[in-house]
Specification:
alpha+beta
Length: 209
């Protein structure tokens, strides 16, 4: 019927408007996760296929805000992730008097972390003091209990995938770098500023704003 067709048309129009509005928020999410994990924001043909391509924008972080590790965590037999985390926490505290509220860790890095020989050994010692039979599990809860006992911030796992559409084909990307973790202070990290709308710079004739 005409009424049904009208309703279908309205739903299609409003659904498209809703998707466009949500897309802007998702774009901000992508840039925020990039910034948190790399201290840069990448706007290129992959992340913004139908728009501008500025490349990688450096957020001009201080040198101490980005540190490497002596052994990558994928080398689970020889890596020392707990020592790496403790070393950075102590460095920031001793040199800048700051502490963190949580640690953001991407899921793939978490898998390497939980399979690390050092992590397993530390948990074994922590949970089996005075026990005749060893019994423990490498879980996020147990890790965070161990961290809390050492006055370290808890780990929060990041599992965030975004679909980028181009020519009808959706390609999934993970904006949070799989090889990095982020130490977050308490409170606000910063403030997002809205850009000026195009209509403010170039008003459309005959339209009231």
């Amino acid at each position: 019927s005409d009424a049904q067709k009208k309703m279908q048309l309205l739903e299609k129009l409003f659904n498209d408007v809703s998707k466009c509005a949500t897309a802007g928020d998702k774009r901000v999410d992508i840039m925020t996760l990039q910034a948190l994990s790399t201290l840069t924001v990448t706007v290129d043909a992959t992340t913004n296929p139908d728009g501008v391509a500025f490349g990688t924008v450096d957020l001009l972080a201080k040198g101490y805000q980005k540190q490497g590790v002596p052994v990558v965590w994928s080398s689970t037999a020889t890596s020392t992730p707990i020592d790496d985390i403790n070393k950075y926490i102590q460095y920031i505290w001793n040199n800048y008097g700051r502490m963190f509220s949580k640690i953001l860790m991407p899921y793939n890095l978490w898998i390497n972390f939980m399979n690390s020989t050092q992590v397993i050994s530390r948990l074994q010692s922590f949970y089996n003091v005075g026990k005749a039979n060893a019994s423990f599990a490498v879980t996020l809860e147990n890790i965070n209990n161990y961290f809390a006992a050492n006055m370290w911030p808890p780990i929060e796992i990041i599992q965030h995938t975004v679909g980028i559409e181009k020519d009808g084909i959706i390609t999934p990307i993970r904006p949070f770098n799989d090889n990095n973790l982020s130490f977050l202070p308490a409170g606000k990290l910063g403030e997002l500023k809205n850009a000026l709308p195009m209509e403010r710079l170039h008003p459309v004739e005959g339209v009231s704003y």
